[in-house]
Design goal:
Structural class: mainly beta
Number of helices: 0
Number of strands: 7
Strand content: over 45%
Strand order of the largest sheet: 1-2-3-4-7
Distance between the termini: 23 Å
Shape: globular
Order of helices and strands: EEEEEEE
Length: 71
């Protein structure tokens, strides 16, 4: 995805980023201090514990078992 517009409560968040995953249909969104794993196929959102997400430059690392909450 080359371009995205993110809105939260009708406004653009001041801090956000989106990461692609190796698995098709999964996106990781960093929204303020939260990490949300979007499963496009299942139409689910999983919140990840921010302490388990490890940024590496423009990439991040996390475990699939770190999903805390389904929304």
């Amino acid at each position: 995805m080359d371009f995205a517009i993110v809105k939260f409560n009708g406004e653009a968040p001041k801090s956000w980023n989106m990461y692609h995953t190796e698995k098709k249909g999964l996106l990781l969104v960093h929204l303020w201090k939260r990490y949300l794993l979007l499963d496009m196929k299942e139409q689910e959102v999983h919140e990840l514990d921010p302490q388990t997400v490890k940024p590496h430059g423009e990439d991040v690392e996390w475990s699939d078992t770190d999903a805390l909450v389904r929304h």
